[in-house]
Write a structure and sequence with these properties.
Shape: elongated
Largest sheet: 6 strands, parallel
Structural class: alpha/beta
Radius of gyration: 24 Å
Helix content: 25-40%
CATH architecture of the largest domain: 3-Layer(aba) Sandwich
Number of domains: 3
Oligomer: single chain
Strand order of the largest sheet: 4-3-5-6-7-13
């Protein structure tokens, strides 16, 4: 896969092992281990170790933890066996019913269908984590790989999956991705810079922003791009012009009303998601104002709804379909080339100018 310069690179990411049946020796980079040896050290039966390996029920939490620790310590790393579901991809997605989640899933499904693979789609919780028991289910199904869409895993769960040789790829990762977890995202800093620069170029000097959660890498990068564009134009970054939310429509409504109620309201608002932007639309209209007459609005993502808004929304295009397609191809490649090294790639964002932005009045 390409690095930041578009070149291909290789290295050791996972240990290459031979898939063998339970009870057989497994060769790793440091030692040979058998299920019987692990069972003896854990003081349990081979059947119990097998249950832990395959995510089956019937094992206490304390025993499971002890066996997992021994498997990791002994470098037991089993690649998918012929009995594994080699034509299945697991997808864990934050807010699968959102336009962003639905678009990502649709693109993953299209590539999976072309390659005659199936999908299991699960929703993460509000903390972007999977439901209890999700990892056990994955281990039972033994998919060829996992795609996380704006979701995350606790380190202990990531280690459990890695110890079974199940690769994972992140799309638009939540927070800072693990250094050894491949991720595909977009150039969010550049997107924030482009959106703000566009408004500055139209003559706006009072530009507000509605950001996402501080814990999300995309949010902080877009906010940083906004600040950089203002600094480059020698414009102040005004704290009262910064609002945050969860990339939801309701946060756009609330943030928009708060900004427009200021003694010196902004003449332009950069909403860092299209859903935020549509919330700002509602706030503007509820106050009897117009877009772009009274306030210009820029969104982010270029979801299908952006061009259907009234007026059509100027926004930053995120190549979500390409991100999802590359993630799906990468997962299938890691199945066959587990030694492939891949860290993070950022795809370019671009400005799409429509009718929601114009020079300020006066």
């Amino acid at each position: 896969m390409p690095d930041g310069r578009g070149n291909f690179r290789r290295g050791i990411l996972w240990h290459t092992v031979m898939g063998m049946s339970d009870g057989e020796a497994i060769t790793t980079h440091a030692s040979r281990a058998t299920l019987a040896e692990v069972a003896a050290l854990a003081r349990v039966s081979v059947a119990t170790v097998s249950k832990v390996l395959n995510g089956r029920a019937g094992v206490s939490a304390e025993t499971r933890s002890r066996v997992e620790a021994l498997l990791n310590d002994r470098n037991y790393n089993r690649r998918s066996t012929p009995q594994a579901t080699a034509s299945l991809i697991e997808v864990l997605c934050f807010e699968i019913d959102s336009p962003f989640g639905a678009a990502a899933i649709a693109s993953i499904e299209r590539v999976a269908r072309e390659q005659q693979m199936g999908m299991v789609v699960s929703a993460s919780d509000d903390d972007h984590l999977p439901a209890a028991g999700w990892v056990d289910g994955v281990l039972r199904r033994q998919p060829l790989g996992i795609i996380l869409v704006a979701a995350q895993l606790e380190s202990k769960d990531m280690q459990r999956l890695r110890s079974r040789g199940i690769p994972m790829v992140m799309i638009d990762p939540y927070g800072s991705p693990a250094s050894d977890a491949p991720s595909i995202g977009s150039a969010d800093w550049n997107g924030g810079f482009l959106a703000t620069q566009h408004l500055i170029g139209l003559g706006h000097t009072d530009i507000a922003i509605i950001t996402g959660p501080d814990s999300m890498m995309a949010s902080t990068a877009r906010l940083s791009g906004y600040r950089a564009a203002l600094d480059a134009a020698h414009l102040p970054v005004r704290s009262e012009y910064i609002r945050s939310g969860r990339f939801h429509h309701a946060d756009g409504v609330t943030g928009g009303r708060e900004l427009l109620a200021l003694p010196e309201p902004p003449t332009a608002i950069f909403a860092t998601s299209d859903l935020h932007a549509l919330g700002v639309y509602e706030a503007v209209r509820s106050l009897g104002k117009t877009i772009p007459g009274d306030v210009s609005v820029v969104g982010y993502d270029d979801l299908a709804i952006a061009k259907w808004a009234g007026p059509p929304l100027t926004t930053i295009r995120v190549p979500l379909a390409t991100m999802a397609e590359q993630a799906t191809h990468l997962v299938t490649r890691l199945r066959d080339e587990p030694e492939l090294a891949f860290s993070r790639v950022e795809l370019a964002t671009s400005l799409v100018v429509r009718e929601s932005t114009a020079p300020p009045r006066g």
